[in-house]
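pinging the channel bc i need a second pair of eyes. not urgent but kinda urgent?? the chain im working w is below, pasted from the shared doc
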Amino acid sequence: MDGYERTIFHVDVNSAFLSWSALKILAEDPGAVDLRTIPSGVGGDVKTRHGIITAKSIPAKKYGVQTGEPVVKALQKCPQLVLVPPDFETYRKYSRALMDILAGYTPLIQQVSIDEAYMDLTDRIAPTDREGALALAKQIRDHVREELKFTVNVGISVNKLLAKTASDFEKPDKTHTLYPEEVPVKMWPLSIGTLHGCGKSTAQKLQLIGINTIGDAAGADLSLLQSVLGQKSGAYIWNSANGISKSRVDPEREQAKSVSNERTLSEDITRENYQTDGVPVIRMLSEKVAGRLQKSGLTGQTVTFQVKSSGFERYSRQMSLPDMTDRAKDIEAAALLLADKLLNGPDGLFEAGVTIRLIGVGVSRISEKQIHQMDLFEWADRNEEDEKARKAEEEARLAEEAIRRAQKARSARQAKLDDMMNKVNGRYGSGTLRKGKT
């Protein structure tokens, strides 16, 4: 196909958040029902039943429950759906354990999200050793199931694109291959929206010109795709549909890349002024981070909210979004949710009497965004977000200047009062004038 053939595995945890939540519950109560065996889901506010589904069990999938849909809609499809809240501390623990196991097979691992990673095993198994690859994939799946008690799918091919596509085939606990000669049978009949890197908007544009399957895109004229999607995106879709990818497994790719902004506040934030003084700063910082991501052509998946107390101690919370994003509204929504948990909860910092002097918002798990031509509406939307960010930053700057001027004026008045009091006490005796208590 493209002359670059390796032995590439894509390892993907089956219903990661749901599986990991189930394991935690079973560890705490061995007699509990395994969430993986009943219609269940993770996400939203369990008490109010608002929010979205971030993970679902296979039994829930049979009712049509979908990841990313509102909890209310999921409950309409499956009234007996059992919901549990997300637990990112537990998820990170299981993710680290999985990566530790994979590292025992090769150092060439590229973790691309909390629950999936690529492995380059060429030095261990030649691309022509198909039986050896299948045997090793089974060994990895068995190792994970026996040691960590959850299951993974393994996709095998000669490049990352095809390995990723293969791992998305039938689940759970399966190994699938997608070698170049298998592409016409296994991949081309799939809908164009399932092609890795083909978003909803791109799929809709292609469907308007009669390209409904991956095979349609593979057989289309390259110039046609480029006229509809732009030169780079058109070439990407055509190459991907034909199974062509030269992207290498890069262990360094995901290391500590992030975009963040923080602001030291003129006045400490407390529970009383959080809504008026804290929330606007979070919004402004989210818009600045989004603007930097967009200008750099990047997207990210993990949002971090952090604060520094008046005692100079740092606290932070983070969460992974269902999809990569560079949009201010996504970052802001996650940051506000994290802020509410960190600051306002019954065990929050405000309840403990902690005051806040610095606020920060960041996005990590960064990757390069697929470049495409923006339509008029997306262009207008992006310009509107940039303008909001500029206005928010200017408003914050003016507010801080006003606060500094007020503080300076108060200091000047206090100095005059102190000087007058000293003169009176010096003339009429110490203690003639005293400062009142407030």
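so The chain has two domains: 8-186, 258-388. and Confidence is low (pLDDT under 50) at residues 370-379. — does that match what u expected or am i reading it wrong
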